[in-house]
Structure formats: structure tokens, C-alpha cells
Amino acid sequence: MLNFQAARQAMVDCQIRPADVTRYALIDAMMKIPREQFVPKTRRDIAYVEMEVPVTSHRALLAPRILAKMIEVSDLHADDLVLELCPGTGYSTAILASMTEVVVAVEPDEALAEQAQTVLEGLGINNAIVTNGDPQMGDASHGPFDLIFINGAVEEVPARLGDQLKEGGRIVALVQKGATCACHSFTRAGGSLSGRYHFDGFGPLLDGFQGTREFSF
């Protein structure tokens, strides 16, 4: 049987640290949280490889390096209120929850939402909740948020999400334009969003985030 603890150590040493991820809280979370519990049992032997891991026919966990770099640039604080969109099975939710006060996650696939909540509760993570809903709508009832983290690639960032941020709040996502994809952050200042490029990186394109752009840069 694969030694998952050793696999987590290898993931951190060979994928996360070399990617210029330096935040101790993030590295510690990725060392402690059992990624294998968030993937199907038949794929647990590849849970820590440097690639996306499919969890359904149309959804996958982001590659560890990409996820870590996205969280690194999110500039998280311990008292942050985070909205996560499309958490899948909840691995990213667990990492975010270990670094912040509360994570509210919206997952469009009802079965994945239920699975994520079950795994999180089983791990004793009680500051995160995963609900079934439309991620394009966000969750204004629980906002405003310090961070909106989109767990995958999008062609557009709906303008309504910016309205759910606190002043100085951020949206972090992989933005796909044609054959290229890169991590960008968008910061709310004075009622508008300003964008910033961080690094090139690919992730699965999320359903519902294609089409005419409401906000882009």
C-alpha cells in the first residue's frame, strides 16, 4: 500500500517548495491534509502526482503546484472570510479553511457538494461549509468576502462577484484566453476591480464560466 504520508512529503519537497511557495501555513496545510481522501479510491495511488486528478468524468482536482501557487498569491489572513466557487470534493476548501476564519463554498454538482461536506466533517474541519448552488451567482447572503477563490479555469469573471467583495477584497482565478491560461487576481478598490497577472498555469475549464465576458482584463 502506498505510504501517503511519504507521498505528501514528496509532493511538498518536489512540487510545492520549488514553485516559490514560501508561506509556512500553506506548506503546513499541504503536509497535513490527506489529499487522497478527496479522490476516488481507484485513483488514490495518483493523488500526489504532479497533475490534475479526475474526480468525476468532468471535474478534477487542480495539480498541487497550481493550487498552492494560487493560494500563495491570494494573500490570505487568519481572519478572512472566503467564498470558494466550484470546490469539487473539497480538498482546496480544506486548505483554505486551515488558513482562514471561515470558508463558504458553492458547488454546482450536488453529489460532489455532499461528498465534500462529508469528508470535511470527517476530518474535523468545522469552519467550512459546502453548499449546492450556482457558482456564477456567488453567495451574497454570506458576504461581503475578503477573498473569492475560483477553483479552476474561467473565460470570464462575472461582474456580480466583484460586488460581493469587501473593499480591498480579491478574486483569484485561472483565466483562459484561447490556448493560454494564467492565474490572475482582481482587487476591489473604490467600487471597481483592477486585475493583475501572476503566473502561467492550466486548470480544468469550469462549466458556466464561458461566453461573453462581463469583466476581463
Quickly list its features.
217 residues, alpha/beta, 7-stranded mixed sheet, two-stranded antiparallel ribbon, 27% helix, disordered C terminus
Structural write-up:
- The chain is an alpha/beta fold and 217 residues long.
- 27% of the residues lie in helices and 29% in strands.
- It is built from six helices and nine strands.
- The chain has helices at 4-16, 24-32, 64-73, 91-99, 110-122, 159-162, and strands spanning 53-54, 60-61, 81-85, 102-107, 128-132, 145-154, 165-177, 180-189, 192-200.
- The strands form two sheets. It has a seven-stranded mixed β-sheet with strand order 5-4-3-6-7-8-9. A two-stranded antiparallel sheet has the order 1-2.
- α1 packs antiparallel against α2 (24-32) and α2 crosses α4.
- The longest helix has 13 residues, at 4-16.
- It is globular.
What's this, in brief?
The protein is α/β, with parallel strands linked by helices and 217 residues long.
Strand content: 25-35%
Rg from C-alpha positions?
A: 16 Å
Q: By helix and strand content, what is the structural category?
A: alpha/beta
H/E element sequence: HHEEHEHEHEEHEEE
**Basic shape:** globular
Total DSSP helices? 6
Main beta-sheet strand count, sense and barrel state? 7 strands, mixed
Helix content: 25-40%
Helices and strands in order:
Layout: H1 4-16, H2 24-32, E1 53-54, E2 60-61, H3 64-73, E3 81-85, H4 91-99, E4 102-107, H5 110-122, E5 128-132, E6 145-154, H6 159-162, E7 165-177, E8 180-189, E9 192-200
Parallel strand pairs: 3-4, 3-6, 4-5, 6-7
Antiparallel strand pairs: 1-2, 7-8, 8-9
Helix pairs in contact: 1-2, 2-4
